[in-house]
Please model this.
Amino acid sequence: MKNIKNISIAVALVIFNFSIAQVAIGKQAVDGSSTVLDFNNVSGNTKGLILPATSGLPTGSLVNGTFVFDVTDNKVKVYENDVWKPLSDAGSSSAVVANNSAELGKGVVIGAPSSTADGVLVLESPDKAMILPQIATPHINVKNPYPGMMCYDTTSKTLAVFDGTVWNYWK
Model:
C-alpha cells in the first residue's frame, strides 16, 4: 500500500512538472498567483519541510538558495554566492535515517519546464515563491522534529531550522 501511495505522489509530481503548475500540499489550491509551492498552513500545524541530509556538501550546478542538512558537521546550510553558509549551530544527526538507494533521474522541477539546478525537488520560477509551512512556536509545538526540518515561526516571525538538537531562528 505504501508503494502505491509513493507511486501516486511521484506520478502527480511528474504531471505537475509538465504542466508548470502551482502545487498545493495538504489543501485544494495555492494562496494567490505568486506561489509555486504552498503548504496547508492551518492553525495548529506541526509539520515542517525536511531538508535533504547530505554527507558533505553537494557540488556541481548549484544555485543560490539551495538548502541542506550536512551530517558531517550536523548543521543546516544554505548556498549563497559560491559559499555554503551555516544557518544553525552543530546539532545531532543521530535521528537521520540513511538513504542508500540509488538515485534515479534528475529530480522534479516545479514552476518551469526544466532547470540546470541539480536537486531532488527544484522550484524554478522568475515570479513565484515557495510558502514555507507555518508553525507557531515550533520549539514548543513540534514534539519530535527531524534534523533539517524548516518552517516559518508565526509567533516570532522568523525562519526556524532544526539542527537535530535545538531550533535556530533567523530574521
Summary: Residues 2-19 form the longest helix (18 residues). The mean pLDDT is 83.
